[in-house]
Design a protein that fits this description.
The chain is about 15% helix and about 35% strand. The strands form 5 sheets. The protein has a 7-stranded antiparallel beta sheet.
């Protein structure tokens, strides 16, 4: 079945990428929970006693244990403690620096990258793929490479600073257009080959039919997913990307808060390139490990 035979219903979205906006209607929807309620009595408010009078709750705290804990901290020799635990503390420091500058892992909390990444996947991220940065910062010391179309990248959202993972769809200098969900980059229309249909649960017990396709934008190809009866943000452009700005799209095109909602992503906000799946568990179901996804490459 040709991809263009699918009928999509809904109003046409704006012809531009919104630098700030609301995300898609399904991504990261959580089950509504009632707020926790605490007793109105505080630690110092009176409570009725069996004798008919009131006793301050504060006087019922375990004061001997608290005094003993305070005495223990006062008697602690910090220099001795640091000396005895210097190996462990050095290990923690090295692990922190390694994760902040060399390699990292990224849990997948939502379905915005279906069908390639699933909720519960833990992805290995190469922080040295593009830049050497000062640990725990966005300060670049040296450039080691440039993102390519098709790279799956982690980055800080320019809208709210949240850590996201999406696919690089267009590079600085590219002119890109999306029409009826289909991309055209630098005058070359991407090709879409249907791979099959399926079902996906979104929101609260809502199931939508999906169409999986192979998207080919030139040098690389990958699977994406469309949701039936959804046409949100399916049209924009033409847009020419400025220097050091990247267009990021989720593979689950109709359920991804990507550059169509948060704007283009500056290079300085890139964290690293996702290389593969370290481990995986079915966090939306029975929490059982998905051993078939352990060590899975993303390319």
């Amino acid at each position: 079945m040709p991809a263009h035979d699918w009928q999509w219903h809904g109003s046409r979205s704006e012809e531009s990428i919104s630098p700030r906006g609301h995300g898609p209607p399904y991504e990261n929807q959580a089950t509504e929970r009632k707020p926790l309620t605490w007793p109105r009595q505080s630690l110092t408010s009176p409570r009725p006693s069996p004798h008919g009078d009131y006793t301050a709750t504060a006087f019922m705290l375990p004061w001997p244990a608290l005094f003993q804990l305070a005495a223990t901290w006062q008697g602690l020799d910090m220099k001795k403690w640091l000396h005895e635990n210097r190996g462990f503390l050095l290990l923690l420091l090295c692990l922190g620096l390694f994760r902040g500058a060399v390699a990292d892992w990224n849990p997948i909390p939502s379905g915005s990258m279906h069908p390639n990444l699933l909720e519960g996947d833990v992805v290995l991220v190469n922080r040295l793929a593009y830049d050497v940065k000062v640990p725990l910062s966005n300060i670049s010391i040296a450039r080691l490479g440039d993102p390519q179309r098709g790279d799956i990248v982690t980055f800080w959202s320019p809208a709210d600073g949240k850590r996201l993972i999406k696919r690089v769809a267009a590079l600085p200098g590219d002119t890109v257009t999306m029409h009826n969900k289909m991309l055209t980059i630098n005058g070359r229309a991407a090709t879409y080959t249907p791979l099959g249909e399926g079902q996906e649960s979104v929101g609260h017990s809502i199931s939508l039919r999906t169409l999986r396709l192979e998207e080919n934008t030139g040098p690389e190809e990958h699977e994406i997913q469309w949701l039936q009866h959804s046409s949100l943000a399916s049209n924009f452009g033409p847009l020419t990307l400025p220097k050091d700005q990247y267009l990021m799209l989720g593979d689950n095109r109709d359920n991804s808060a990507d550059s169509r909602y948060i704007g283009l992503v500056p290079r300085r906000l890139l964290i690293g390139k996702a290389e593969g799946v370290l481990a995986s568990a079915n966090i939306t179901g029975n929490w059982m490990p998905r051993f078939d996804r352990f060590g899975k490459s993303l390319y």
